[in-house]
Amino acid sequence: MAVTPTIALLGATGFVGSAVLRELAARPVRIRAVSRRPAAVPPGARADVEVRAADLTEPGETADAVADADAVVLATLYSSATATWRIEDGDTAAERVNVGLVRDVVDTLADRPAGPRTKVVFTGAASQVGPTGKAVLDGTEPDRPKGPYDRQKLAAERLLLDADARGVLCGTSLRLPTVFGPGAGPTARDRGVVSAMARRALAGEPLTMWHDGTVRRDLLYIDDLARAVVAGLDHAEALAGRHWLLGTGEGRPLGPVFEQVADLVAERTGRPRVPVLSVPPPEHAEAGDFSSITIDASAFRSVTGWEPRTELGEALRRTVHHLADETDPAEQAVGGGRA
Fold first, then answer.
1. What CATH number does the domain containing 273 carry?
2. Between vectors from CA 14 to CA 10 and to CA 20, what angle results, nearest 5°?
3. pLDDT for the residue 86
4. What is the largest CA-CA distance in the chain?
5. How far is CA 299 from CA 137, 159, 161, in A?
6. Whole-Å CA distances, 1 to 4, 24, 67, 319
7. The domain containing residue 228 runs over which residues?
8. How far apart (Å, rounded) are the C-alpha atoms in residues 73 and 124?
């Protein structure tokens, strides 16, 4: 009889983790959904879902979370209650989550008896390559990260890939572009720029850009990202030992994207359309905020057969309608984002 695999999903209530949980739950597998707060089992789940509430930064918790797992998905991400993904140099709490949890997983799997290597998929970031001067990234660029977040993501990735080279595990890193879409709940809030602009428009606030709107981003819808992560598990052996870029292959100018968001919100609410404005950048803006990024994900696609399925206009519509349903307009919070 075939053995049902056990997949440990770390960060199961986060924006990415909750979407991966929904995707995995449709399969006949065992899922150990681990997060600080208990994850909600997706409706109609085919999988056997074990919900485990744990602070993975505490000693021994990561080891318990991945015990006997055949595969691990690392979808954890540090952020404070008021921050987006940005962190400061010397932030030891961020380092403990962004790097330390990968180290804990590697150390735990290194202590396992000899046997089949555990599959590990890590969710990295396309931005961790640093400034390249290239209009299109294909994954062959040398890594020269500038900001602390990108340096931490790269350090974590290198820990994982080094462990793969040593035969400790079967590891791969998927570098994510700008991902957006509905979150599964308050702990899965999308703090990225697209949803931030939708929240502002729903609050009747102008949509502001730190540039003239020509800066491009490769925008990947959250459901398509979740399918890519699961494809990473399905093809773990073929993908092992290196990083892979994810994206749609099309860089979208943010100005027209924000205009489309403003139109969708006006259509949904019946209120006047909010303006889209260029404003001076804040002091914390980084060089990457003004760099255009398009991703060539053909290498990942050729191995896995994965393709993004959701057209941008439909993805924006779903996001706006979800956020409109989620919060009363009088209580809309004005979000921040990388614009």
1. 3.90.25.10
2. 65
3. 57
4. 64
5. 11, 22, 18
6. 9, 21, 22, 43
7. 6-180+220-245
8. 11
Task: Give the residue carrying structure tokens 């919900």.
Answer: 51
> What type of residue sits at position 62?
T
The count of other CB atoms within 10 Å of the CB of residue 289 is: 16
Within a domain: 317? yes
How high is the pLDDT of residue 327?
A: 64
The dihedral through the CA atoms of 141, 144, 147, 153 has a sign that is positive
Judge whether 1 lies within some domain.
Answer: no
- Give the predicted TM-score (pTM) of the model: 0.91
235 and 265 housed in the same domain = no
Q: How many CA atoms are closer than 13 Å to the CA of 1, on its beta-carbon side?
A: 3
pLDDT in tens, 149-203: 999 999 999 999 999 999 999 999 999 999 999 987 666 788 889 999 999 999 9
Residues 109 and 195 in one domain: no
Mean pLDDT of 67-86: 76
Query: Number of folded domains in the chain?
Result: 2
65 near 8, Cβ under 8 Å? yes
Two structure tokens written together for 259:
């205009």
Task: Establish if 339 belongs to a structural domain.
Answer: no
User: Does 74 share its domain with 154?
Assistant: yes
User: 31-35, 92-96, 334-338: lowest mean pLDDT where?
Assistant: 334-338
Specify the pLDDT at position 80: 54
Radius of gyration in angstroms for the set of CA atoms belonging to the chain, rounded to a whole number: 20
Closest CA relative to residue 302, chosen from 226, 222, 224, 239: 239
